[in-house]
Amino acid sequence: MFMGEYEHSLDSKGRLTIPAKFREGLGDSFIVTRGLDQCLFAYPVDEWRALEVKLKSLPMTRSDARAFVRFFFSGASECEVDKQGRILLPPKLREYAKLEKECTLIGVSNRVEIWNTRVWEHYSSDAERSFAEIAENLVDFSF
User: Fold this and answer.
1) Among 13, 31, 74, 126, which residue's beta carbon has the most beta carbons within 10 A?
2) Cβ atoms < 10 Å from Cβ of 91
3) Eight-state DSSP code of residue 135
4) Does residue 24 contact residue 1 with C-beta atoms inside 8 Å?
5) pTM score above 0.70
6) What is the pLDDT of residues 57-113, one digit of tens each?
7) Could you tell me how far CA 18 lies from the centroid of its own chain?
8) Could you give the 3-state DSSP secondary structure of residue 87?
């Protein structure tokens, strides 16, 4: 399980250090793709395969299902961790998430999210203000 929040800088070549605690769960090679809310999702290979099975079960007769699967898989890239604990993020993924220099990596249960720090701070601030309301809407989950 991934949890916690870490800040790291993207270098001029597009390399990002992955926190040691996240590297343990992600492994030496993992999948990074476009996520929701303008961030990137990083999945260990076994989680990616499980997600792939679920996405394959979506009805391809629905245009929204086709669009989501296309968007999700076309942005996916296998990233390998180098000896310094860094990955090279492809330019298209950096562009999508507006990753420039300061990045925030957060653990979200079965995945790691990679955010532009300013975007994360704004998103987090907004979510924090409505946290009680969000929890209220999730009452069926017994929080």
Assistant:
1) 31
2) 10
3) H
4) no
5) yes
6) 999 999 999 999 999 999 999 999 999 999 999 999 999 999 999 999 999 999 999
7) 12
8) strand
**Tokens 């990233």, located at residue:** 79
Dig out the tokens for 39 from the structure.
């961030």
**Euclidean distance between CA atoms 101 and 11, whole angstroms:** 7
CA dist., res. 111 & res. 106, Å (int): 9
Q: What is the three-class DSSP state of 70?
A: helix
The residue type at 1: M
Q: What are the tokens at 122? A: 């704004």
Chain position carrying tokens 């989950």:
141
- How many angstroms separate the CA atoms of 61 and 67, rounded? 11
Q: How far apart are CA 92 and CA 87, in angstroms?
A: 15
